[in-house]
Write a structure and sequence with these properties.
The protein has helices at 2-10, 14-39, 47-51, 63-73, 78-97, 100-132, 137-190. By secondary structure, it is mainly alpha-helical.
Length: 194
């Protein structure tokens, strides 16, 4: 832990921006993990069982089935069912994509923030050389260390952010695909015009 604090202290001003980015990545990743934990799972009921009034309310994903089931049983027109279906899909996609832009932005800017820290570290090294009047490893070493710490931190935050973005993007596509399959199954099991 002491070594980490020393690295943060020697990393220069860019390291604080990268730490803030890392905290955002952790926060968004935890939030999305909990979101998908809440919506995942297979329904223990078939579309026929749901059509006949049985419910599996513990799983949020299947609220779509209840929406369509209620609309079909109440004799709602196809146009209104389609509008409700589109609204549900839009809300679901919005909920699933929440936080994705933050991960994408951080994955893009983190290497540049690290590069900014590199430039600052090199500038510090040159200022030290100018102050001392001679170029020795001890004089240049602190600035170079600051530059390398910032570069490594920027790359680390970017790599983690890109990985998390891709994991959650793939999960979002999987959920959307699952919802589309449920649409077709529910329409087919309703016995009415889809």
């Amino acid at each position: 832990m002491n070594e980490l604090l020393i690295l943060i202290n020697k990393g220069g001003p860019a390291i604080w921006i990268l730490l803030a980015c890392a905290l955002i990545v952790i926060w968004v990743s935890l939030e999305k993990f909990l979101f998908y934990l809440n919506v995942s799972g297979k329904s223990p009921l078939s579309p026929d069982e749901i059509r006949n009034g049985k419910r599996a309310e513990s799983c949020r994903r299947y609220s779509y089935l209840y929406l369509v089931n209620d609309a079909v049983n109440e004799g709602v027109s196809k146009e209104k069912r389609d509008a409700a279906r589109e609204a549900f899909m839009a809300r679901s996609e919005r909920d699933m994509s929440r936080g994705q832009p933050s991960l994408a932005t951080i994955s893009v800017i983190s290497p540049f923030v690290g590069l900014f820290g590199t430039v600052i570290g090199i500038m510090h090294a040159f200022f030290k050389v100018a102050q001392e009047g001679k170029m020795t490893p001890a004089v240049v070493g602190a600035g170079i260390a600051e530059a390398l710490i910032a570069t490594a931190a920027g790359l680390l935050v970017a790599i983690i952010s890109v990985v998390m973005y891709n994991v959650f993007k793939a999960r979002m596509y999987e959920e959307i695909s699952e919802l589309e399959i449920l649409q077709y199954e529910t329409d087919a099991s309703s016995g009415k015009e889809p």
